[in-house]
Every structure is written in C-alpha cells, then in structure tokens.
Amino acid sequence: MENIGFSGRIKRNEFVRIIVQCLYSLGYCDSAACLESEACVSCKSRDFELLEAHILNGNLDSCIMSLENINGLSEESRSSALCLVFEQFLLECRKYGTFLDLELLRKKVLALNMRKEEIHKLAYELLSFGDFGLEYMDYCAVDELRKKLIPSLEKLLPPPITLPERRLESLLELAICGQIDRCTYHSSAENMSLYRDHHCNRDQFPTVTIQILNGHRDEVWFIQFSNNGEFLASASKDHTAIIWKVEDDDRLTLKHKLCSHKNPISLLSWSPDDSMLLTCGNLEVLKLWDVETGSCKHTFGDNSFIISSCAWFPDSRRLVCGSSDPKKGIYMWDCEGNEIKAWRGVRMPKVLDLAVTPDGGNLVTVLSYKEIRILNTSTNVEHVISEDRAITSLSVSGDSMYLLVNLNSQEIHLWDIAGTWTEPLKYKGHKQKEYVIRSCFGGYESMFIASGSEDNQVYIWNRRSSIPIEILSGHSKMVNCVSWNPKRPQMLASASDDKTVRVWGPSKQSPSNSCNSIPRDSKRSQHRHMKLKEKKTFQEF
C-alpha cells in the first residue's frame, strides 16, 4: 500500500477514505462519489456495506452471519452490535410476527455467545415495548428505524470497519491544539488559519509598562480587575481603595476613591456582576461599595469580628467572609448583612484566605497556614490538601477547575480542585520568604500564571513549564500583587510597595495609547526593601 506525506507515514487509501467521508459529511455527495469511483476507495468497508444491506432488507440471519464473520472484532463490540440488531428485529416481531417468531428469536439470542447484560437488556426491551407505540407504526416507520440503526452501528464498530465520526475535522483540531500547546505566548481567542502554522509573537504579550498609576500615597497591597475587564480596583496601606476605569484605548482613569477605612486595606473582591466591590481592612471591618456611585452600602463586622478574607457567590447576592479568629470561622451574609450560614467550632481553625469557585460549586479555604480545605457547596462533602510549607495566598481559575497557592518556600503550587492529583504542578524563580505575595491566572483560557516577588519584579509562567517565560522589571520596591484582565488578555497590572500600580501591555503598542511608558530593558532600581515594616506578613494573618 503506497504511503504519502513528507515522512511517508500516511497510507494513501486511508487518507482518501477520510477525505471521502468528509465530503459526504459536508454535503458534497456527488464529489465524494466521484472520488470513490476514481480512487477505487469506498467510504464504507466491504464488511459494513454487507451488514447495512442485510439490515435494510430485514434479513436477521445474514446480519448475524456478517457480524460473526468480521475479523478483528472484540467479543464486547460484537455482542453490543448483535444486541442492537436484535432490538430492531425484536421490535419488528412484536409488530408483525407471531409468538413462534418471538420464540425463534429467543433461541437465536441464546445460541449466540452474548454477554449476560446484553441478554438482560433484550429481555427488558421485550417487556417495555408495550409503551413504544407499535400500534401506530407502519412499514415506512420500520424502514426509518432500520436506517437509524446504521449510524448507531457505525459509532459502535471500530476502525477500519467504520470510520470515527468526522475523522478529518478531528485530526485537524488535534493538530491545531498541538500547535497551541507548543505556542509559548498563545494569547488569542481568534480562529486559527489552516493555511499556516500557528505561532504567537512575544511582541503581543504584556511585557512593557504602558501606564503607571500614581493615585495612592503609600504601599499598594492588592489589585484586581473586574470580571468584565472594564475596571481595576487597587487597595493601599494609605487606608484607601481606588476604582480605575479601563478606557477603550487601554488607558486607565480614576473613577472613584473610596475613603472610610480606618486601617490599611488588604483585600478587594468584585461582585460577579461587577456592580459592587468589597474592601477588607487590615484587622478591621469589611465594606460594600456601589461601583457606579462610589458610595458605601454596608459595613460588615465590628471590633469583635476581624475579617481576614472575603469572596462572592455567583448570584452577586451572597458573600462569605473568613476570620483570623478561630472562634469566628466563616460567615455567609447577604448584601444587607443578614447571616445566612456559618461554619465555626472546634474543627474550624483560623482562616487565612478563602475563595469561591466562579461556578459556585466549591468553597476553598486556607486554614492553619498549611491546609487547603475544599467544600462542595451542594453535597457538603469536603477534601483536604496539605502543604509542607506555609501558604500565604490563594486564587482560583476562571473555569473553576484549578487553584493556586503561594508558599513561603519560594514556590507556587497548582492543584486541581476535584482532588484527583497527588502532586501539584510547581512554579519557581520568584522570591518570597517573608511577605504575602499574590499570584493569579491569566491570558487566553488562563494558560498563564503571574506573580509578584520580593525582588521588585513580576514573574510570568506558561502553565506547562515551571520556568518563568518573562521577568518584568520596572517597580522600585517589592511587588505584592498582580491581576490579569480577564477580557483583555494582553493587559496585566501589578501593585508595589513603591506606591504605584503598573499596567503592562504588548511591546507593539501605539504611542498614543501609552502613558509614562518605560522600555523593558530599563534599569531596575537596586533599592531593596530590607527594613521590616508594619505591613502584613504571612505570620500576621
């Protein structure tokens, strides 16, 4: 059999047969038939053509013989195919046959080496056909049922007897996915062309500072883009939070400055519908803000309930808060401050961080520094992931499948939320020993991980590699937190002790879209953040 292709690994007949199948599936039946005739290659194998003819003619014995004579067919596949055929003829016997016909069919079934479960299935079919509407069936309806049996057998029988459905499209999609997997900087949701090999250039990846935000008067501890990508919120040691508007030209402008906390703000959380924002004061209360007006709608907690973390449920009407006080545990509130549910007691250590998966299916908490507890909110079943080193922060992926934790061992661990992994994927290179450093998922389909670092830089990894693909310089002090725009995969933001928020974008950026732009090779300040300050270390959570 002649092979084709650059490496000679493709069998010509198989290639032509797949093309014929594709033409038929696209509706080009005349072209497909012409190719079959010219190449002397049929879309259907000779064995299946015979089986199809016997089914359409209603010849049970010939169908059985055809299936028995097919070489290379496993007993399981043969038994399942025979069961489908017998179901069809059982129905026809009930409609047009006699008791003797049914008895004969029963003997044929018992004479064949079919699996017990298949025989039990046929017995059930025999008893349940009374509700099948047989009295309304005519010969045309029986013919239609025979025709519908053909594709069922095509899906059941293995190659080369039949071809998997839409085989050529499947092979092309596998090739495209393989190219995406090999593309280090893949960050586009656009459909890929079949005309050329896929490759995303680095110059379309966020690697340069396109804007510096100077709205805070002290260290910036936390940032987060809204779910719709239209806003960025930043929280600072100066006791304020700022809501920034992302304009159409990718510039950010100040929308609201939120000023009513008495302590530094350590955490933010956008409601899923982006109409509200939670701000969590360091060893203080939690406040709920209206994004449109910038007004405070409610204050949660008091001096007796110190909130350490917060998150939203998908309906934007319920939120959860964790306390660093073990006696308080976790509370679920509505937006008016009414308690809905609480998790507290001797089994609830102090809560360091928490998150709710975007689908609302799991509540993920970090407890006692080294324990990740994942609670299924529907079944109340929980499982625990244990780490060897102290966990300083937590984030979950947009598809609700994975979680990230930063450790003081200078590693970031990626776990599956379902709990099937025995070991995490590990990412290294950044610096973290003393302080709370936060990481995030980002880019197209959350295929990238970004993190701050104690060495004043931003680190970015492709999820498939433990080695950073980019190290972004620009901040003059420690980078505490990063956030990737969920709707603009080429936009990344970072928050630093240098009192600024940097917005990163691709190097191919129009000059009119940049503000305070700094080349990537600009010299990083050598100033190191050595002095121990009152900012929150992971030990103080």
Strand order of the largest sheet: 3-30-29-28
Radius of gyration: 32 Å
Coarse shape: elongated
Tally of DSSP helical segments? 9
Main pleated-sheet profile: 4 strands, antiparallel
Unreliably modeled segments: 130-136, 510-541
Give the terminus-to-terminus CA distance. Answer: 70 Å
The total beta strand count reads 30
Which structural category do the helix and sheet elements fall into? alpha+beta
- Mean of residue pLDDT? 85
Bin the strand percentage: 25-35%
The portion of residues assigned to helices is 10-25%
What can you tell me about this protein's structure?
With 541 residues, this protein is α+β, with helices and mostly antiparallel strands. Helix content is 24%, strand content 29%. It is built from 9 helices and 30 strands. It has helices at 12-26, 29-39, 46-57, 60-69, 75-96, 99-111, 116-128, 139-156, 167-182, and strands at 3-4, 10-11, 208-213, 220-225, 231-236, 241-246, 252-258, 265-270, 276-281, 286-290, 296-300, 307-312, 318-323, 330-334, 339-343, 351-356, 362-367, 371-376, 382-386, 391-396, 402-407, 411-416, 425-428, 439-442, 448-451, 458-462, 470-472, 479-484, 492-496, 501-505. The chain has a 4-stranded antiparallel sheet with strand order 3-30-29-28, with no helix packed on it. The longest helix has 22 residues, at 75-96.
